[in-house]
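Ticket opened by: R.M.
Priority: normal
Category: complex prediction / small molecule

The reporter submitted a protein together with flavin mononucleotide and asked that the result be attached to this ticket for the collaborator who will pick it up next week. Submitted input follows.
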Amino acid sequence: MNSQTSNFEELNARIWQAFEQAPLDPSDPFRAPVLGTASSCCCALRTVILRKAAASERILGCYSDSRAPKISQIQINPHVQWLFYRPEERIQIIARATAAVHHMDSVARAAWDNTLLEHRLNYSSVFAPGSEISAPDSIALLHRGGRPPAPKELDRAFANFAVIVTTVEHLDFLRLNLDGNRRAAFTWNGTSFKGSWLAA
Ligand SMILES: Cc1cc2nc3c(=O)[nH]c(=O)nc-3n(C[C@H](O)[C@H](O)[C@H](O)COP(=O)(O)O)c2cc1C
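Result attached by the on-call engineer:
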């Protein structure tokens, strides 16, 4: 991403441009960020695939199994953080956001309808993510039955599918560079992201 600017508005726009492009490009490092939630004991981190980014709505979103711990964690505490990193440019962006879970509603349905059949299979296990199983391959997804599942059959898996939509309130941008590090914060003030420079 081109981040060579001292103009806050421009830098914020470039950050969101990079977010918006990431879901479309499997090789983009911003496509696999870390999503952090608060659990009862500590912070909980995991890699997810960024499925949606929309600057106009300040949205970053991903999909999850509705039975995964992150879903109940968000329902208890919706304050989440995203960690993005581009190793080649040594750019880190941390986004603070408020999350909402969409399950069995029109948002989840629209995302499900746009999801490839093979990806829907991931939600067809009888086991919730994180449950203990007797052997590593005893997940019993529908496709292990030998024949490809019919779309209708797979539709039962829709009940295990959730969309996490987060609305960004704060961005922390950091670029490490031998010529000088650069760090900026952007805080949503109700109308726009207000920028400020930070010591790196
Ligand atoms: C490359 C990669 C991409 C992943 N993408 C997702 C994803 O989009 N959604 C998801 O729920 N889990 C994804 N996972 C699995 C999560 O990292 C995590 O193991 C799982 O969601 C359970 O998380 P939880 O127990 O914290 O809820 C991905 C893992 C890897 C390694």
